[in-house]
Each structure stands twice: as C-alpha cells, then as structure tokens.
Amino acid sequence: MRWWGWGHQSRRVPLTRELASLLGEALGLGEALGLAGATQQAVALSEIALPEITLLARSRQRLEQIVGSAWVRGDAVSRILHCGGKSYLDLVRMRSGAPEGAPDAVVFPASHDQVLAVLAVCAEERIAVVPFGGGTSIVGGLAPLRGAQHAVISLDLCRLAGLLAVDGASLTVSVAAGTRAPALEAWLAEHDLTLGHYPDSFEFASIGGCAATRSVGQASSGYGRIDQAIQGVRVATPRGELSAAALPASAAGPALRELIVGSEGMFGVITGLLLRVRTRPALHHYEGVVFDDFDAACEALRLAAQDRATPDVVRLSDELQTNILLAGGEANGRRAPLGRQLLRSRHGVLAIVGWEGQRDAVSRRRLHTMTLLQRGGGDPIGETAGRAWAASRFATPYVRDALLDHGVMVDQFETATSWSGLGSLRATVTGAIEAALAAYGTPALVGCQVSHVYLTGASLTFTVLARSYPGGEETQWRAAKDAASAAIVGAGATISHHHGIGRDHAAWAAAELGPLGTSALAALKAHLDPAGVMNPGKVIVGV
Ligand SMILES: Cc1cc2nc3c(=O)[nH]c(=O)nc-3n(C[C@H](O)[C@H](O)[C@H](O)COP(=O)(O)OP(=O)(O)OC[C@H]3O[C@@H](n4cnc5c(N)ncnc54)[C@H](O)[C@@H]3O)c2cc1C
Fold first, then answer.
1. Ligand 1 centroid from CA 332, angstroms
2. Does residue 386's CB lie within 6 angstroms of at least one atom of ligand 1?
3. Residue 94 and residue 6 in contact, taking contact as beta carbons nearer than 8 Å
4. What tens digit of pLDDT does each residue of 501-510 get?
5. By the number of CB atoms within 10 A of the CB, which of 168, 208, 391, 477 ranks highest?
6. Nearest CA to ligand 1 atom 2
7. Where is 287: in which H helix or E strand?
8. Mean pLDDT across 191-203
C-alpha cells in the first residue's frame, strides 16, 4: 500500500481527458487539471515528521517476549505505514509530511493467545492499542490516539490470516480476522464458495476490519451486509476471551455478537469469525438502466425492493454523478464506454444493476426486476455499461489520488434513511455541503448515489469535489463534513451506513445512540477494558 495514497505501487489510474475537462471547467481549475501534470505531490518519505517514541524499554521488552523481537517494530517506515487510515484528511496530512501522530511501535501478533497476552501487558503498562486490519478506515478509526495512556501501539493483525475450517454442509467457514478480502475470496474459490463481500476498498480491507466496522460490499443489496454473514465471533479483550456462540439462530437473550460487530476495537480485538458463505455463482450479469430523473429511479427501485425483486448490485447515480462516471470511464487505461451513447442523445440518470448466481435463477430474478424497473420508466441500455462498471469497480480510490495530485478536494459522505425521507435528505445534505464550501469562494460539485437498497429505505453516498484551499485543506474539509453531518443528523438519518464511527463521527453518533445508549456502551467498555487501552477516542467521545 502506498504510504501517501491508495493502492498497489505498480498501479496508477490517471484522469481521463473527459473527466479532467469536466472538473477543470466546473471547479475553476482550467487546463491545470489533469493535462498539465501534477501540481501537488507528496513530500519524500524521509521528510515526514514523527513524534518522539514514548514507549518504555521495559514495556517493549515485555511485548517482544510475547511476539518475538522481530515483530515489535519502531522504525520510521513501520510507524509511518500505521499512522492512520486512508481518509481525505489522512492523505492530505501525509502528503504534506505532517501526520497527526504515529504509534510508538507496531506489534504483529501471530495467534489469538498472543493477542490476549499483548492486551494484558498493555493494560498493565498503560499502553493504548489501535487494532490495524487492512488500514483502510476513512473515519479516523486508526488515529494513533493514546487517551490517558503513556504510549500507543498499532496492533497489526496481518499474521493472523487464513481459512481455518470449511463446513460445506452448513455453508460456513471459520476465518482468522487479519485475512485480507482478496485472499479470502481466492481460498473460498478453491471450495467453489464465495462470501460475496466486495467493498470499494476490497483490495486491502481485512475481514476482521470489515466486521469491526459493519461494512457493506458492492453486492450487499443481494448478499447482505457483512453483519448478516457473521455467525460467530471470537474476541480477545484486556479481561480475557469473549466468544459469541456461532449458531444459525438463537433466542438466548440479547445477541453478544451484535455488540462486537461494529465495535471498532473499543472492547477488544476480533481474532476469528465464523461466516456464512454461498456457492460460487456461475454467472455475474451486470447491465445499465437509464431513467429520466433520480426521483423516478428511486421510486422504481423502491417498488422492486418491496416486491422482493432487489438486484444483488444496485448503483443508481444522480445526473452529476452519472456525468462524472461517464467522463471517468477510461479506468485502467482501457476505454470503458459506460453507457456513453446515453449522454450523447439525452439527459438522464444511470443505474447499474446486477445479479449473481446460477444461470436459471439469474434469468428469472432479472426478468422480475427489469419488468418493474421498466414499468417505473427505466430504459435498459444493455450489458456494455454493466461490463464497464465491473472492469473499473475498484478504480475509484486510485482516481482520488490523481485528483489530489491536482489540488482537488474529494471525499464521500454516506448515510441511509427510509424511502419516505430519501428525496428531502438528498436535497438537504447537498444544499448544506454546497453552502459550506461556497464560503471558500470556490464552486463545489456534489453528486449522489443510491448504492444499497432495503425494504424500508436506502443508502445515499454523496461525492464532494471542490478546488482545495491551499494551506487550509483541513478547515475547508471540516466545514463541508460538519455541514453534511449536521444535515444528516438533523434529518434523523444515520451518521454512517457503512464507514463506521471512528473518531470523525463520534460526536455525531452520540445523537443517534442517545445519552443512555451512549453511557450503556461506555459501561460495557469499562467492564471489558477497565484501563481504557482499547482504541481510545473512537466511537464514543472521551472514552
Ligand atoms: C477508497 C475506500 C473505499 C471504501 N469503500 C468502502 C465500501 O465500499 N464499503 C465499506 O463498508 N467501507 C468502505 N471503506 C471503508 C473501509 O474500507 C471499511 O471500513 C473496512 O471495513 C475497513 O477494513 P480494514 O480491514 O481496512 O480495517 P481498518 O481500517 O484497519 O480498521 C477499521 C477500524 O476497525 C478496527 N479494527 C480493525 N480490525 C479489527 C479487529 N480485528 N478487531 C477489532 N477492531 C478492528 C480498527 O482499529 C479501526 O478502528 C472504504 C475505504 C476506502 C479508503
């Protein structure tokens, strides 16, 4: 993973000529964007300023005794690679050589027992612990905050990887939590199975990180969120092991599993998971449907969802997002004519819909959905658009790097609400972000996408683009983020549909959880983590 951006060192996705021209014009960046070369590159690795190490020699020795001296690292590169996640703010700070902090050491345990022992030592020695899965958090979940402790370590779970057991009859698998999503899918493929969990961050996210943040994948409208796939969890806490029994269903009181899923390392470290999997699909079918406008498309999707005809993949873009998608369709250096014919001839919004499964089932389900979408005004434009989407489905984070190179502020804010509140939520949040960014005297573009649909509502993801304010990137971003968050909370929508709470949403999540809900979670944390070493400053403010 690049330390200053996203992705594999060998892969870059440059801006297409169309996207550079669209954004250059709209954001007032003119030809500087994309065509004249990068204007804002990252400083050299050696120029990054790191804080003094405060971990005591005695504490370090105790950690080395557990995992081995080679697996406790305090060198600059290890610390830099574990400074934070991959949010816009993380990247801006990193590129300027001023991360907000760094762990004093990175510790790599190799087993559940080693994690338990590390946490016990950290509780005794008063060392904060930030669990590190794939390192892709975009809500400040990996910020190296020490809270009331004298030092902070990053607990990198990459050695805790592997497919541990397969139960073909029950269609469940046991997995070590540090396993990266691509490795898991590759192992499952050998058994003709799939988890079907493909977040945009798929290339790097770990399965434990996905569970800890309640993540969703691109096909979660069909496969379900990660929480729906989790049957059981094994957790190491500073007080010992906590295991939620892996059962298909249970009425034995409130579900412990539900307290752990989404807990973002505040109670302990998820070390293993029992996951529900499915037979690998024989067919992946994706296609494009064009609607006259976003509201009509939402209504058609609502009717489809409530008639139990939800496609596995649903990505409905509004007019602006559709244009951005089409202009950026040259991902990976390959021309991907994402419904290009659509925009040449008319205005409209594009929905990518898809089904995965056995051939007969895909055909039957597709017919059901498409009948309803066409009845709602949808105009099918065929598989070319679907194939183009599939070919570039993991390219967006690389495009973000290219935009940062050219001085563009770019971020995504996400939420979910009921069908009846969707239209007004979209308008309110868009207006709030535009007004906040207008104060910086630069135009902003705010696009919107429905990326997951449910019986009762849907998620909205806002893509925000503006010319970045040199030297004031953080305040500019904060103005937009606060405006969006206030609008979301004010409308009674969720502060996060899938990115989680981390540090960035903690203050806003309090409104959603309520005072008693927040203090109940804090009390549980105090019970499982009395010294307060687990991921301080995340999820609940001040804990
Ligand atoms: C470009 C980009 C696209 C993204 N797209 C999506 C998307 O489509 N859907 C989506 O849901 N999210 C998305 N995300 C957010 C992020 O990828 C998810 O939250 C993901 O689930 C995090 O997994 P990870 O392994 O990288 O966790 P990390 O980033 O390493 O950790 C996330 C949080 O969980 C904690 N944690 C990690 N592992 C454990 C563990 N084993 N036990 C306890 N706590 C743990 C960490 O301390 C941290 O607070 C995206 C992020 C980026 C950068």
1. 24
2. no
3. no
4. 999 999 999 9
5. 208
6. 201
7. strand 283-291
8. 97
Q: Where are the strands (E) in 108-238, listed by range?
A: 127-132, 151-156, 163-167, 172-176, 193-194, 230-237
Q: Reduced to 3 states, what is the DSSP secondary structure of residue 62?
A: helix
Q: Output the pTM of the full model.
A: 0.95
Q: How many CB atoms lie within 10 A of CB 187?
A: 17
Fill in the amino acid letter for 507: A
Block residue for tokens 């030592």: 121
For ligand 1, is residue 201 a contact (CB within 6 Å)?
yes
Q: Which 3-state string (H, E, C) describes 482-527? A: HHHHHHHHHCCCCCCCCCCCCCCCHHHHHHHHHHHHHHHHHHHHHH
Nearest atom in ligand 1 to 137's CA: 29
Helical spans, DSSP H, in 280-358 = 294-306, 319-327, 340-345
Distances, alpha carbon 481 to alpha carbons 78, 271, 436, 504, in Å? 30, 33, 9, 9
Q: What is the pLDDT of residues 112-130, one digit of tens each?
A: 999 999 999 999 999 999 9
**274, 246 Cβ separation under 8 angstroms:** yes
Atom in ligand 1 nearest the alpha carbon of residue 396: 1
Q: Which residues does residue 289 pair with via DSSP β-bridges, in sequence order? A: 351, 380
Residue 326: what pLDDT? 85
Q: Smallest Cα–Cα separation from 489: which of 465, 506, 464, 466?
A: 506
| DSSP count for the chain of H helices, then E strands | 20, 18
Q: Is 154 in the pocket of ligand 1 (CB under 6 A)?
A: no
Closest CA to ligand 1's atom 37: 209
Residue nearest ligand 1's atom 5 by CA: 200
Give residue 537 CA to ligand 1 midpoint distance, Å: 17
Contact of 194 with 188, CB cutoff 8 Å: yes
Number of the ligand 1 atom closest to the C-alpha atom of 85:
29
Assign 456 to helix, strand or coil: coil
Per-residue b/e over 59-78, b at no fewer than 16 CB within 10 Å?
Answer: bbebbeebbeeebbbeeeeb
Q: Using CA atoms in the order 317, 319, 320, 322, what is the torsion angle rounded to 10 degrees?
A: 50
User: The tokens of 511 are what?
Assistant: 């409104």
Share the mean pLDDT of the chain: 93
